[in-house]
Design brief:
Blueprint: H1 5-10, H2 12-23, H3 28-31, H4 33-46, H5 61-74, H6 78-93, H7 107-119, H8 125-128, H9 132-142, H10 148-166, H11 177-183, H12 186-200, H13 208-218, H14 228-237, H15 246-259, H16 265-275, H17 286-302, H18 307-318, H19 331-347, H20 352-366, H21 378-393, H22 397-408, H23 413-428, H24 435-448, H25 452-468, H26 477-486, H27 491-508, H28 515-528, H29 535-559, H30 565-579, H31 584-597, H32 609-624, H33 628-638, H34 643-652, H35 670-693, H36 701-722, H37 734-756, H38 762-776, H39 783-788, H40 793-796
Helix pairs in contact: 2-5, 4-5, 5-6, 5-7, 6-7, 7-10, 9-10, 12-14, 13-15, 14-15, 15-17, 16-17, 16-18, 17-19, 18-19, 19-21, 20-21, 21-22, 21-23, 22-24, 23-25, 24-25, 25-27, 26-27, 27-28, 27-29, 28-29, 28-30, 29-30, 29-31, 31-32, 32-35, 33-35, 34-37, 35-37, 36-37, 36-38, 37-38
């Protein structure tokens, strides 16, 4: 038997065509072949041969039977389909033999796997629908088997049947209990019997079939009106709300929502609230109370209350406010209480009295100077307290601001953490809060906070507030520098906040900050933009650019001082790295920075990275043509010595050849187009410098010699690798093409500057000219390089 799933699936279409052709044949012996194939499958299964393939889902057997049934369906061989399903049902129902082994498959396992494949096909659904009830009963019974393989196969078949009966999860099933009884008459009685068995044995908490039964009931839709069948189910399921297993209480609550008619929603919620003890002294069963609270929550989330009863329900729930007191040992109860109250307050109006009660509860819950003793569900409960406060004060930003201020000063780090997350959400949603006051609170909290995650969230918030509003109010330099010196792990979160500080100081009091501090910060930003760093660090680098990059660049352009050259180069390198980022969020923010410094030129193209790079290079040319450091930086971006040798070696090493690399081998590859952009910018910068200062960038004799050396040392290997090829050669590979293009263009730039330089000599130009001409003499170069001669004609024709 084949065990490779890919190979098996690959045979499906061929087998399908084979079977369809045979069934359509007029010759009886050919037409009988598919039937004999099916007979052999069942003979093999019924023989009891033991096969160790429990992880292969019966390998190719389900595909064979499935294909034969599809072919039979097409030719209306309904008898064959019915007989096959009957045989599979019998095999799946067989009891386990006394000598069974967990390491070997049983015939029942194969039968269940085959049934799963068959019932997964929607084209067979019309023929299979009458069998859903029968198969559900089979699966539920099989789930009690001691064999793991049978239980595993049963669970897969069960999920397929549920999908066919009720549709995808969340699609809104319209099948009620009454309709379930009409479509599948045997199913309700069977489900009631299974529930009876579980309810009778409540002390035995392990009921494997209970999950399946409750999953079926929870998939139903509520009826508009109550009926006797629903009541029968409710009597049994309500007893399971006190089950010690948390997930079963949740599943029971979902089932009860489906079994409670829509017209009885308010009555049931009122009755459930009445069952909640009015004081902690009356509490006798934590699980039962938790089950009732879950059911109330699910009903509120899935139903709408009547206007006349909503206020009464709110008051009844608030009368059980002891659930938020410090005497409650299990905070899971307090958590559900907060969820219910939060939903009620956010969805329905409450009067002043109720608000005052909630205000007192929230003040008590959030006013903790010392952390509570660790209890079950404590962190989740304290987070839900913040949710209640946000729901209560959402319409009054003054009260909401006061609530946040109280939460940020509490002794519970869970409340502080939840408040910070909620503030981040409010900032993202542009909620109109007094963010300057929030910022002041955050700086105070930052100076005292000990929880590392909270410190990170505070710094992220301070950064994002700065992105929304570049004000200088509230920035605490002392706290910032203290953190900078003592906790280096927060460096990439501190950088954007420090960028806010630098931006503010440069705009208000530039004499208080020196160029060394600015250059150190810019160097950190450049390091953070490195592709080897993780996404969060690179995202922090883009925020740095947005917060202070434009201020620093504009200041450096205005002062034209060499002390700021390193700052400019670091910021340009960071920007060029981030704009080539694969992550969409990082790249989008990087292009927004370019849009920020070139606001008059973007014209709606602020998210087009290639267009923004051209704008950035234009900005460099217009503002930093005078800077030799920026000019030399761009020459290194155009070409770095040794790059051609490295690219040639990589083409010779077969291990470096990547699958589908040829898709990028084009003269339109970004690396080559970027070289042309750098070349154009360097040309313009050289002209601007010559026109304004009557000078040029000075290249040393070593620079010329290095260019000559690069060409003369690599030319023999390059020509040797392409001598027996025509167009497709090593010069067609992107890495070689881009590095060689960069080398030629750099030669052109150096040649132009030597021509404009009064110290230039004919000898140095002659060597440069000879090196370039010797390269272009080869007839086996890629046609692109012939085209490139037009770009460097100033050197060739000098």
């Amino acid at each position: 038997m084949m065990n490779n799933n890919g190979a098996i699936e690959g045979c499906r279409n061929g087998l399908m065509k084979f079977c369809l052709t045979l069934m359509d044949s007029s010759q009886p012996e050919l037409k009988h072949i598919p039937y004999s194939l099916l007979l052999k499958v069942f003979t093999s299964l019924e023989s009891g041969d033991k096969m160790a393939s429990i992880t292969r889902r019966s390998a190719g057997l389900p595909i064979i039977v499935h294909v034969l049934m599809i072919a039979a369906k097409k030719y209306k061989q309904n008898v064959l389909i019915d007989d096959t399903l009957d045989k599979l049902y019998v095999l799946a129902s067989e009891p386990i033999p006394s000598d069974w082994d967990q390491r070997q498959d049983l015939p029942a396992v194969h039968a269940l796997n085959i049934l799963k494949a068959v019932f997964s096909d929607s084209t067979l659904s019309s023929s299979l629908m009458p069998l859903y009830s029968k198969m559900i009963i089979l699966v539920v019974e099989s789930f009690e088997s001691p064999s793991w393989a049978i239980r595993n196969a049963s669970s897969q078949l069960f999920s397929t049947l549920i999908l066919r009966m009720f549709g995808p999860k969340g699609s809104g099933s319209c099948l009620t209990v009454v309709e379930l009884s009409a479509h599948y008459p045997d199913l309700p009685a069977f489900l009631l019997k299974k529930l009876d068995d579980c309810v009778v044995r409540l002390d035995d908490i392990l009921h494997p079939t209970l999950y399946l039964v409750l999953t079926i009931l929870s998939s139903l839709s509520p009826s508009p009106e109550d009926n006797s069948l629903q009541e029968e189910f409710r009597k049994r399921v309500s007893c399971l709300l006190c089950n010690p297993i948390y997930s079963l209480r949740e599943l029971s609550a979902f089932s009860m929502v489906a079994l409670i008619s829509i017209d009885k929603t308010d009555d049931w919620i009122n009755e459930l609230i009445e069952r909640i003890p009015t004081s902690i002294e009356e509490l006798s069963n934590h699980n039962q109370l938790h089950g009732h609270l879950i059911l109330i929550e699910k009903l509120l989330c899935n139903r709408n209350l009547k206007k006349e009863s909503s206020n009464q329900i709110i008051k009844k729930m608030l009368s059980r406010s002891w659930l938020m007191s410090s005497f409650v040992a299990c905070r899971l109860l307090s958590l559900k209480f907060c969820h219910i109250v939060s939903h009620l307050v956010s969805m329905y109006p409450c009067d002043t009295t109720d608000k005052d009660i909630l205000h007192g509860l929230l003040k008590t819950a959030s006013d903790k100077q010392q952390p509570e003793t660790l209890t079950i569900g404590k962190g989740l409960y304290e987070s839900s307290v913040v949710d209640v406060g946000v729901a209560l004060y959402r319409d009054d930003t003054t009260d909401l601001l006061s609530f946040y201020s109280q939460c940020l000063t509490t002794g519970s780090h869970d409340i502080r953490s939840s408040s910070l997350k909620q503030l981040q959400l409010d900032l993202t949603n542009n909620l109109q809060l007094d963010w300057m006051t929030i910022e002041t609170c955050l700086w105070k909290l930052l100076s005292k906070e000990t929880n590392h995650l909270n410190m990170k969230m505070i710094l992220i918030l301070l950064c994002d507030i700065g992105l929304k509003n570049k004000s200088c109010v509230g920035i605490d330099v002392t706290v910032l520098r203290s953190l900078y010196n003592h906790d280096r792990s927060l460096l990439h979160h501190l950088l954007p906040v420090e960028g806010r500080l630098i931006s503010c100081l440069l705009n208000t009091s530039p004499e208080t900050i020196n160029s060394k501090e600015i250059c150190d910060w810019c160097r950190h930003v450049e390091n953070s933009s490195n592709r080897d760093e993780n996404e969060d660090i690179r995202l922090a680098a883009t925020k740095c650019l947005l917060l202070a990059g434009d201020v620093i660049l504009n200041m450096a352009a205005a002062k034209k001082e060499k002390s700021y050259d390193n700052c400019v180069v670091s910021l340009l390198e960071a920007c060029l790295q981030l704009i080539d980022e694969e992550d969409v969020d990082v790249r989008k923010m990087a292009t927004s920075f370019i849009s920020q410094i070139c606001s008059q030129k973007t014209k709606g193209h602020h998210i087009n990275s290639n267009y923004c790079i051209q704008l950035l290079l234009e900005y460099i040319c217009d503002n930093f043509y005078w800077s030799e450091a920026v000019y030399k930086y761009l020459t290194k971006k155009l070409y770095q010595y040794g790059l051609l040798r490295k690219s040639l070696l990589s083409t010779q090493d077969q291990r470096n050849q990547v699958l589908f690399e040829h898709d990028e081998d084009s003269i339109f590859a970004e690396r080559i187009l970027r070289c042309l952009d750098y070349h154009k910018t360097l040309e313009m910068m050289g002209k601007r410098k010559y026109e304004s200062e009557k000078g040029c960038v000075k290249f040393t004799v070593d620079d010329i010699n290095n260019i000559n050396k690069e060409i003369t040392e690599n030319l023999p290997d390059l020509l040797n690798s392409i001598k027996d090829s025509c167009v497709i050669s090593s010069t067609s590979v992107t890495s070689v093409m881009s590095s060689l293009t960069g080398l030629i263009l750099l030669s052109d730039i150096i040649g132009q500057q030597m021509l404009n330089s009064p110290t230039g000599t004919e000898e140095t130009i002659k060597h440069l000219k000879y090196s370039i001409q010797s390269l272009f003499k080869s007839s086996h170069l890629h046609p692109w390089f012939k085209h490139l001669q037009d770009t460097v004609e100033d050197v060739i024709d000098t």
